Each structure stands twice: as C-alpha cells, then as structure tokens.
Fold these 2 entries.
Entry 1:
Amino acid sequence: MYTTATAFLEALVEQGITHAFVNLGSDHPGLVEAIAEARANGRAVPTIVTCPNEMVALTIAHGHTQISGQPQAVIIHVECGTQALAGAVHNAAKARIPVLIFAGSSPFTQDGEMLGSRNEFIQWIQDVHDQRGLVRGYMRYDNEIRTGANVKQLVHRAMQFARSDPKGPVYLMAPREVLEAPCEPVSVDMARWQPVTPCALAAQDARFLAERLVKAKRPLIVTSYLGRNPAAVDVLAALCAQVGAGMVESVPSYVNLPHNNPFYLGNYWNNPEQNPDLAAADLVLVVDCDVPWIPIKNTPSEAAEIYHIDIDPLKEQMPLWYIEPHRSFRADAAQALQAIGDAAAALDTDAAALAEKTGHYAARSAARRARVAQEVFAGEGLTIARLMAALREQFDGQTIVMNEGITNYQPVFDHLAPVRAGSMFASGGGSLGWNGGAAIGAKLANPEATVIAVSGDGCYMFTVPSSVHWIARRYATPFLQVVLNNDGWNAPRHSALAVHPDGHASKAADLDLSFTPAPDYGAIAAASGGAASFVVDRESDLATVLGDAFAVLKNERRAVVVEARLG
C-alpha cells in the first residue's frame, strides 16, 4: 500500500539522504510498515541507523554532513524525542548544518475513527501545545505534514531552506493518522527543487577589496569556517600569496588554511591577551566568522580598515552582534575570494611591497611554528603538547580528527597542526557532547578514514558514551576516543576566575567542578560497545600505548578509548 509514509521516505531518497538516524516510538507505525514494505519490494530507502539517544542521533548526522557535505535525516519520537535532541539542536543551528529532523505527533483521534487512532495512554500525555515551537528558534523552517498529497513538496521545500545559505536544520512533524493514510503516488521534478544559488560578490566590490588589500601594508584575514567548503581553502591560500595577507583563525571549526602555510598565523579562542597580528593589521578582512575577536580582550587597531564577507553578515540569529565594519558583503566565500583574486591580478602590483609583506608574514608564521614545537619540551609530566605530538606521529593520509578539547581546543589544533582541508573539525556550536556521535558520522561518511575524537573528561560524559559505543559496534564504525583527563570541568573554573580573579573562588580549594573519584571512562565504552581501553599517565609510555591503541583500531576494527591523565 502506498501511504503518506511511503511518499515521505521516497522524498528523502530524492534528496540524496543516505542515512536516517532514528529513535522510533509509538508515533511511527506507518513509517515502520513503509520501511518494511519498501525493503520487501526492493525499493530504496535511506539506511536506518538505530540510535538509543536522540542527541547522539543528531550529532551523528552533524558529523556525517561535515565530512560528506550532504544533509542527512533524524527521526525522533513526538515532543519527548524533540526535547531529547537537547544541545545538538543548538550545535546544528549555530554550525549551519543542513539536516532534516522529523518527529511524529500524538494521534488527533481517540475513538478509532481512522487508522492510527489513539490506543496507548501515553498518547494523551504526549499531546502538547505547539510541538514545533520547542525547536522553532533554531530551525531554518518548520511545518506539519497534513496530507500525503503534498508531503514531497513539504520535504523538498524544507530542504531548500536547509541547503540554501545560511544553511541549517529544518523540522517536520506528522500525526499517526496522516502517516498511515493511503495516497496516490507523488511525482516531482527535482530539477525544480534546488537550493538557492549562493550570493556572488559584485565585480565592483571585488575590485574595491582587491585595491584595498594590495595597498595595505599589513592586511590580515580572519575566519572561522571558510573551510566548510574544502575548495575555498586553496582559493584563500592563493589570495594570501597574491596580495601578501596574513591569516588567523578565530574559533575555527574547520581547517581553513594548512598550518604549514607561510601565511598561517595561528588560532585564538578565549585567549585573555591581545593578538599581535590583529593589533598590527592596517586592514582586516573578516570572512565566514561569527566571533572574529572578543572586544574586551582582543581587537583590531582603531585605525584599521575592517571589511566583512559572510553568508550571514547580519548574524540574524544573534540578538547582540556587531563588529562595525567599514563595509559588509553577503557572498559565498570561495566565489568572493576568487573574484577578489581575479580583480587583484588586473592591478599594478608593487613587487617590493609584496615581497616585504610576504617576508614579514613568513617570518611570523615560522616563529609561531617554532614556539609550538618548543611547547612539547616545556613543563613536566604528561602535557597536552606531548600527547598531541605523539598522537600526530600515528596519523595516516586519511586521518580525521573531531576536536572538542574545550579548554584545550587551541593546543589540540596547534600540535596536531592539520595541513589537509577536511581533516579536522570542531562542532561550530557551544553545547558539549558532539565529538563521539560526530566521529561515528565521519566514519559512516568516509569508511576508509582513521577517525579520532578528542575531548575533555567532562565533555566525554556529555557525549552519552554508552549510546555512542553501542552504535559504533552495531554499525561497524570504530574510532579512537582520546579523553583528556584533567580531573573535572576546567572551563567553568576559567570563566569564574576571568570575571572574579581575586574573589572567593580564586581562594577556594573546591569549586564543585572535580570528577573525583573519576569514572572508568574506558570501561563505560567497553561495557556498552566492546571497546578496548588504555590509560596513559607518563610521557615515556605514550608511544607504546598509542601504538597498541591504533593496532586494535585498525587490525581488530573496534573502537578504542585512551584516557590520558594530564599533569
């Protein structure tokens, strides 16, 4: 029988959605039947991945899309499952991850008037006002499916929003009776349901910016997520060399420029000091960046010209946001930087000035790399620098790192020093617990990759490791989880001391942030997913432990947890 649920599944396939990460419930009999019927008759449906936690389901979709560039689907249970998506909704929205979220809703009949009418007590309790409103503030689009006659049109309209810049999650819901209802097969012309063409930088604006960059003595480009389009990385590298511009990352969530590029000047997060390259710049070009600097800590010179290119230059979902640029442009980063480069090629260039700028930034970049290298030898015991340097030695040409180091974000980026676009990611949001599910998504998107998740100990607990490692074993997506054990939540401690450096918290022995007695992090993964577990607390054991861990990962093809006790 062809039903609304049948048409819905067909629409997912038409969108190129390969996986549906699901947590099914009493609202989904129509979908369960339609999936079984499609399989019995040889019709394509997305690969169904059962996820015993909704937040994990969405983080898997998030990670998959970061690697593949293709949106996926998450199917959850009524309003309870919608709320259980938790902070993963925030992350997908803030990171502009296109994903289709679908939830059932309580049946709207109770006396058996229609197939799917209420037959369980929970269906009264789960009937709430404005289910879509639970997540509307984070969605690019939301709607309710009311008939099979236009279900495909609603799915494709939702995905037009999801896939058009600024991208993001979309939410659809449908009650049981609608999903069960028979309908005529629906056919659509997908050529007429494409995303909106990205904005292009106007020719006169490209020439203007090219002229300013060429004229500037210390031009600097600041970005966070330009590398979400891997092709943009090469375009940025070419432009930096063409006009002699340095590049610094603020809160990067992608590889935006190889760390060995002579124009790469590093990255900053919540650093409590002024970045010298930002201070010295006489022109700052902000490209695809939400927080290019934190004004009370780190700002450009008052004399600097500031220009801004972004897919969302007004930051419409951020109530308080401004950087006061001299001019702002809505444009696709790769196209815009290519257009600026083309315009610059037509200008007269002062070869001596370009050589001076290039030499200056090459020296700054080399000095930075030397400082980072020296950090490996500083201090005593097992440091984050030593751990990451040893981890980097194990990399192959297909290693992907999902970095959720939180207070260690920066040293993880610095010492792993990615040089390949699409090889290192952060969540792009502010809700912790992304890295474990994201690692599974990365492995599903690229099964040949060696996937590593790096997180703090507190962040590891947020990932719901029992669910993550069950899924990793069930769907053969092994990855290496590195837990940075610093005995608690460092981020709240840093925040408190930054605001009250001389307050009572600065003198208190216990801020209620410790994880003592510490959980057995590896045992959680072993119990739920058969993962191997290692603990390392001495630098002298690093090479052996990591070598053994990677051997298990690659030879036994099962997940591994390495708990690194820093100190």
Entry 2:
Amino acid sequence: MKLSKILIGSAIAGGILLCVGGVGGYQYVSKLNNQLDTTALPNTTFEGISLDGKNKKDIQAIINQRVTELDQKSLTYIFQNDKQTYTWKDLGVNYKEKDIIDKIFKEQEGNVMNRYKMRKQAENGELKRDYKLTPQLNATAYETFIKDKYNETLKNPVNAELSIEGSTVNVSQSQNGEKIDKGKLNSLTNEAITTGKSDVTLPVTFIKPERCTEDIQKMGIKEVIAEYSTPMAGRNGNQSFNVNKSANTLSGVIVAPDETFSFNGRVGVTDAAHGYKSAAVYSQGKVIQSAGGGVCQVSSTLYSAALRADLGIVSRSNHSMPVNYLPLGQDAAVADYGPDLKFKNNTGNHIYIQAFSNGGSITTRIFGTNTGKNVEVSSQVISRTSDKITAVTYKKVTQNGEVISNGQISKSVYKSAPKE
C-alpha cells in the first residue's frame, strides 16, 4: 500500500515536471497562475454565495450588494417610552470589504506544486473556503453621528444646602442628576452591531452635584460655638435700618479653615449709594450725621462673638469715643476705606456666621465644631482723665478644665466726650 502511494505521487509529480519541461508545461503553469491570480477557486463562497470562477470585479459587485443590504439594517435606541431607529449606514458601520478580496487571492498564492494541489483539492471538495464581512463601527463616523444627539441633561443635579433655623443647623439631601452615558452607548452599539441585536436600551450615568450632602457635613458646621448680643435701646429709625441692613448682608457667610474674614470685605461700602441711611457716627472726635451710622454695632457684636469663639483676631480698632452697647475695650469700629474687623478661622473646621436683629437687640452667632473651650472676656479701665479713658481687655481660655491661655489682648484709648 505504502509503495503504491509513493508510485502514484511520483507519477503525478513526474507528470507535472515533464509538462514543465516543455512548451506545454510553460503554458499550463502560466494558465494555472493566471486563474488563481484572477478568479476564485471552486468551493469558495462569500456568506454562502458561490464565487467559483468569478473575477475580482464580479466578487466586488457581490460584496457591494451585500454591503448595501447591511447598510439598511437598523438598530433601535430605547429610552423609557421613546424609541429612535437608525440604519447601520446612519451609525457609521463599515465592513472591511476590501480585506476580503485581498484575503481570497492571498490565500490562493503559492508555488506551482502548491497551487496545483490547492486547485485539485478545491475541485474535489477537500478544500472549502467561506468569507464573511465583519461589521463594526467606524469611530470617526459614529462620533459625527452621535455628536449632536443625547446631550441634554435628563435630570438636573440638586446641590445640598446648609440652612440655619434659630440655632439649629440643617443640611438638605443632595441628589444626583442623570444624562445618557455616550461612552457606554458607543460600546453597546458596537456590541449590537457585531452580535446582530436589533435594539439597545440607552445607558444612563449620574451627574454628581457640585455640593454633596457629605461635602457639607465634612465642613464641620454643626452647632453654635459662640454668640453675643448687644442692646439696640435708644436707636432711631435710620440707625436701626442700617443695623438690620448690614446684619442681613453679614449673615450667611462661611469662612474656611485658616481663612481670614474681613467685615468690610463682606458687608461692603455703607454709603448712600449702597442704600444706607444717614445717622449719627463718630468722626474726628465729633458726632456727625453720615450714611451708615449704626453699622459699627454689628461689627462690635461680631467681634465679641469672635473673641468667645477664640478666633485669631487679625485687625480691630476701638471707637474714638465710648459706645453705650458694649463694655469699654470690647468694641470694633469699622469705616469705609478705613478701620476693618478681621479675624482668622483657627478652628480647623469651617465656620458659619449668623447675624439678626429682633428689634430690641442685635445678635451674632458663630457656628462650627465645638472645641470644648470656655472663654471669659473682661475689661478694666486703668486710667480716666478729663479728656481720655484707657481700658484693657483680658481673655481667659480653659479647655477640659485646664487654663490654656490667660492675659491681656488689647488696650483701647477713648476721648472722654465729643468736641463741641
């Protein structure tokens, strides 16, 4: 048996070689090469369609026809009750159809012996080849298609809000927004094209709000850590108006850790152009009428609260003459483009300033995280003459029962009485 196979193989090979040895052999090889270079072998199919004997032009026409058919296939995008259907051509699907012709004829290459065997095997059905298109999204084309679609926000995110009711801190619940996840939609579309799915449910991604509930909670604004009130008895209508206006502007400011707060920076200019009314103010040792009279009571009340919160006082000036709503040495004068009250938030957490008037008094509260400190503020007049009063102010701070600081924090000098 082995010997007969060898003899048959030798006979075939010998026959070919004999043919090759003459003119007829040359013509045979030339014809074989030409056929395999220009036409498809028997039992070669493209998606089930026979390509036997077809040249490149014919094969390309068959492929183009199939591409046209596939271009009309559709994919439906579904979102809730809405459906939008697009053809594969709309989506930018390509098929690498040129690769098929190249592959067909690349696989028919070889030397004369290999090509002879290849043809014989194809003719008797031992060699069968089937080629298919590979549909996939063209990234650039799909990007153009989807660019102006599904960009709208489906649900706007809701920021968490901090609010104060009386002395209670409230933090509202933040909510994520929603939009179509176009990156994931690209992947799902590509998957649907390659697997033959007819629809895709649009994927949704969340839009994180700028301020989450957790973000505000981490700020540490939890409770009142210091407050102070001063009486408004004897205030006329314009003074009360200015107190209320500046208190309303002041209230609601949040000061970050290590940030320096400026009263003038927050409240702004307090002249008539900014809505403030004319009332009594101190100026160069005299009492005059000027816009913004009464605002200093708000800054002084805030200063007293800041002392009791043990904040770092950066800038504070006393009035030129005593005021009747605070002990000497505990006031804080402010003026447009002049003295300012500044303090640094040294608590390690954010603080929130609240200011309000109930008609009989003005109150400022500082909210933050309780440090366990207890602060005592006291003042003492150390000198009084016919034209000058000098007072010193002390602050004692205890924490967990231990005194951590105790001493003089300021010295204030006042004129005894206004000039005539």
